[in-house]
Amino acid sequence: MNKYHQTDHKAIGWDDRTLKDMLEQSEIKFKDTGRYQGISELVLKESDPIRYERIFSRIRGGLVNARETALNISASPIVREIGELCFALFTPEGDSIALSTGIIVHVHTMSDSIKFMIRNGWENNPKIRPGDVFGTNDPHIGDVHNADVYTITPIFNGDELIGWAGGVTHEIDVGASRPGSMAFGQTSRYEDGFITTCEKIGEDDELYASYELRAKKAVRAPMYWLLDERTRLAGCQMIRETVMRLIEEEGIDTYKQFMQEVIEDGRVTFRERVKEVLVPGTYEAPSFIDVPFEGEPRMPSFAAKNQLMHAPMTLTVGSKGEFEVSLEGANKWGYHSFNCPPSAMQGALWVQLTQTLVPNDKINDGAYLATKCNLPPGSWSNPENDTLSTTLSWFFLIPSFTGLIRCLARSYQGRGYVEEISAGYPGTWNVTMGGGTNQFGLDGAFTSFEHSSQGTGAGFIKDGEGYCAAMWNPEGDMGDIEAWELLEPLLYLGRGVKPQTAGMGKYRGGAGFESLRMLWKTPDQVIFNLGEGHVFHGSGMFGGYPGNSGYRHNMHETNMKQLIQERAPLPCREGDTEQSEMTRHVKAEREEIDNRATCLEKDFVEHDLYLSVQRGGPGLGDPSERDIKAIEEDLNEGFVLPRFAEKVYGAIFSQDDKGKYHVDNDATNERRQELRKQRAAKSIPASEYISQERERILKKDFYYPVSDMYASSFSLSQSWANKYREFWKLSVNFNF
Amino acid sequence: MPNYDQKTLELLMDGKLPFTQVHKILSSFKDADRFEKMLAILQERVSYDDKIIMPYGLHLNIVSKADGERIVKCDCGHEFCEHSINWKLHANVYVRDTEEKINEIYPKYMGTDPNWMVLREFYCPNCFTMLEVEAVPPGYPFTFDFQPDIDTFYQEWLNKPAP
């Protein structure tokens, strides 16, 4: 036991107070003053700004150092290749002081977990002592989804708890009733696998052998789970050492003062930033995602239906820089794995804001305290039902928060900061998961994270970037093919740009890509597919079109073995869906090609083909204004197919004997004038359209998931129902 | 605090500034006078005399009329309505609500199922520029994208009289 460790003290908070008392007092002070801990002046920062910044840099550096070191302990490709980990430091009350780089989702989610322990009397039972290790992955308490597993350790200075260190990594398999880290199709928590709820999983800086054994037996990829436990624990210990060195150098009183000031500083800075770059007002950007489970034989009848998620994102920016996100009108939770408890929504909010509005290192719970989220009780965004499945909350929150990016973009444009504008991001999928006997003859599970690289949305001044980003992970690395082939019994036949994934516009979105995989050295394997298929999850902006919606294309019981033996041409991609290279080269007994991009596990055998289609970003601006040279590049690089360059961009072009495209400037401009005349001929005044559509609404003539969505939103939100009725001039009694 | 000249901002707005410079602008502190400078650039580029008081999208601005009304106006000069009303209510609309219409824009399987979602294209009734595209389920109300609080912005954030 080192000098910082003592155990025989009644209250572990400051000044002989309990943590519960500290938390309650902190909340009262904030409620009464609107300032963290009631701090009215940043005394340390203002009196000695260099020292203040030095302390912050030491902490931030310690967190980044912990992350970089821990990353190399992990064996999981999700952690090593993609960088799906993050470390953070907290006050005794569980408020975050600073975060490392990495997956900066967890500004407040780990806070929720710590506060849960405090509120529920963990000080008395199971007790919080120096060297204790707590583990949690319960999204209903504080997390985004079960695959994000937290290790949280207390930091003591003598008898006092001086704070908490926390680390998170994304696991490959969580032991759910289906394989994979984000298995879906479960209808309740009881099928979600290995869930720990702020459980004490170790003491004296060591994990309990009993916990490790339980984890080993509970998940399908135990090696990764156990190594990642050590990854997180090592990182937390490094953070503790950083803090203790800092206390030795600066003194405990200064450290205490700093940790509170830096959070209030974060709150004030966030408000100032809002006033610096946004415009006060109200913004709207709804988005949607399809859940096509109708006829799904692996689900109970009450869940085997088509559903449409409704995310009516509204952002209100107030006169003092208030920043309130609302999903008023969202529809009800469902018997699926896509429900999002509030902590998950907080995670999504912060991973967005740290990449957009506040792209700096000074993000902590001060910024959380500067914002508000209205998450309607009973909706998918706040289900108030902790028996629900949550393994893939990202499937709903990714679409919902692309609306926030569009809201911010309008504000940046209103303010003149056009370089900051993004038309949103694509759905970061296709998610491929599966399991079965792997290429090593062992029972295995996998979750490919190729989808961590997608096309970004178009900007106001440039095209989006291709295959490089995911809203949930600023690292933006799709991982080496070889790394995935080690984990997954699927060989790559090819990986390349997918044409027509980039949303068309004056500026196009960044393109997505596709990977064609062949099942290899496995007698049996199940594979899941996930992504939007029947809808676009978000819109474009200012006249740009959304990026692509996905689909599935699988070929079962193929002649690939014969083609390989004969050294016949093999496909390496699909390319144009209407002239598929897969179907051109390969014969199959069964072929699935449809919009059911989200489906439960399907059986695959060796030499079957699995196509993974990623998404591209939305476009911005009228496509008929796209620069001629940019269209030429799109054609020659394979981003756009010729027939769409002609129809949408109005391009008139030729191809030389080397196959290179040349777009005719004058002929294209002439054609574009014609396109505008066509728009005039085929469009109608909005008032006329509203009258027509109103008749359809009165008949309730909609496909059932659409009607169900409206009925659900009406039942949860009187204000949204009234807004709907008012727009369409319906009676106050109108209901779906 | 940076201060960019008009030429730089014009190139930025037109997407013609080298990316290295864009990257610097992105990474730097914001220039506090950007709003006024961008308004001046936009004002120079439109053919009308009404004073632009806020950019409101590509080709759309909110202008202040002589009678004090704040109107959403297209670059071509077409006036939609008071800014507190959704301009889309005064636009022309074309709805892609069949597979055939959707497949003019997307290859088969890569667009939407019109039973689940349609594309609504909003055009200026004068110049027929496509100003917005909504991707929504059938029967969804028009989205009122942006309702700026112009008085607060000018008076409290810019410390100027609201136009």
TrEMBL record, chain A:
GO terms for cellular component: cytosol. Pfam families: Hydantoinase_B. One of its GO terms (biological process) is glutathione metabolic process. Residues 48-623 form the Hydantoinase B/oxoprolinase domain. GO terms for molecular function: 5-oxoprolinase (ATP-hydrolyzing) activity. InterPro entries: Hydantoinase_B, Oxoprolinase-like. This is Hydantoinase B/oxoprolinase family protein. The lineage of its organism: Bacteria, Bacillati, Bacillota, Clostridia, Neomoorellales.
UniProtKB/TrEMBL annotation, chain B:
InterPro entries: Aceto_COase_bsu/gsu (IPR016750). It comes from the Bacteria. Pfam families: Acetone_carb_G (PF08882). This is Acetone carboxylase subunit gamma. It comes from Metallumcola ferriviriculae.
